[in-house]
């Protein structure tokens, strides 16, 4: 018998507040099958799904069978997201390299598009993993009312409401939550400290010297030897005056 989901109180996060700001560069682009105009749009939607779930998909990581089903209309975007979360790539890259608590954090960010509310929510979903397994946990997230209200069957999940009231923006999930947990990063030898023997300096373009600036000739001036032609130092005791004085020969 599966244990029911532990109750937790949703906190007032940025994602739960209605947006009133003017759309800009920080606003997420919504990919949906409702407004596809060409096959290229479908390709962009699939790439957006890979970025959301895998962050980056190599050629060997792509799920060709799921892509074919989505292109032919046999499955919805929600079923495509479910297949990516249950794939071997997602299992090896996230489930096997994190604890249940960290895996819950990854899945809530990628599937529901928000951060976890609290430690109590992490514990609640980790109990679901322990009782229903990884597939049961993924299914509960994708079938949840929160997912259906925000993304439905046709929208690729995205990080909801990144813009803060102060005008700043939240960090992307892939930067905020690294793929490897601290324990696994330590086993792999990360972070690696690299010492540089040379100091790198950066000069802004507006402060770089223009053509004709005297500072451009500083290197050439320093390369020229500053030593002139010093006078010869000759002692008067070493001069043979008799041989040096000219005389007339008869």
Protein model, in words:
It is elongated, with a radius of gyration of 35 Å. The model has no long low-confidence stretch (mean pLDDT 81). 41% of the residues lie in helices and 0% in strands. The chain starts with 38 loop residues before the first helix and ends in a 6-residue tail after the last helix. Helix 5 (100-112) packs across helix 6. It is built from 11 helices and no strands. By secondary structure, it is mostly helical. Belongs to the phycobilisome linker protein family. Residues 241-250 have a biased composition (Basic and acidic residues). Pfam families: PBS_linker_poly. Residues 222-250 are annotated as: Disordered. This is Phycobilisome linker polypeptide.
């Amino acid at each position: 018998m599966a244990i029911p989901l532990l109750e937790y109180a949703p906190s007032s996060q940025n994602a739960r507040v209605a947006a009133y700001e003017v759309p800009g560069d920080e606003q997420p682009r919504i990919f949906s099958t409702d407004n596809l105009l060409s096959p290229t749009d479908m390709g962009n939607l699939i790439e957006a799904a890979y970025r959301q779930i895998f962050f980056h998909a190599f050629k060997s990581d792509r799920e060709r069978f799921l892509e074919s089903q989505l292109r032919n209309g046999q499955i919805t975007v929600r079923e495509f997201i479910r297949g990516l979360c249950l794939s071997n790539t997602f299992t090896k890259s996230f489930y096997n390299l994190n604890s249940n608590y960290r895996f819950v954090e990854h899945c809530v960010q990628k599937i529901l598009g928000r951060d976890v509310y609290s430690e109590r929510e992490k514990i609640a979903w980790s109990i679901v993993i322990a009782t229903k397994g990884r597939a049961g946990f993924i299914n509960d997230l994708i079938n949840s009312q929160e997912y259906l209200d925000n993304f439905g069957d046709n929208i690729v999940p995205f990080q909801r409401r990144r813009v803060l009231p102060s005008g700043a923006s939240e960090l992307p999930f892939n930067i905020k939550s690294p793929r490897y947990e601290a324990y696994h990063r330590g086993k792999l030898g990360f972070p690696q400290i690299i010492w540089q023997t040379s100091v790198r300096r950066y000069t802004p373009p507006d402060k770089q010297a223009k053509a004709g600036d005297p500072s451009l000739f500083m290197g050439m001036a320093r390369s020229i030897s500053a030593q002139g032609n010093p006078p010869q130092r000759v002692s008067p005791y070493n001069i043979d005056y008799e041989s040096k004085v000219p005389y007339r020969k008869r």
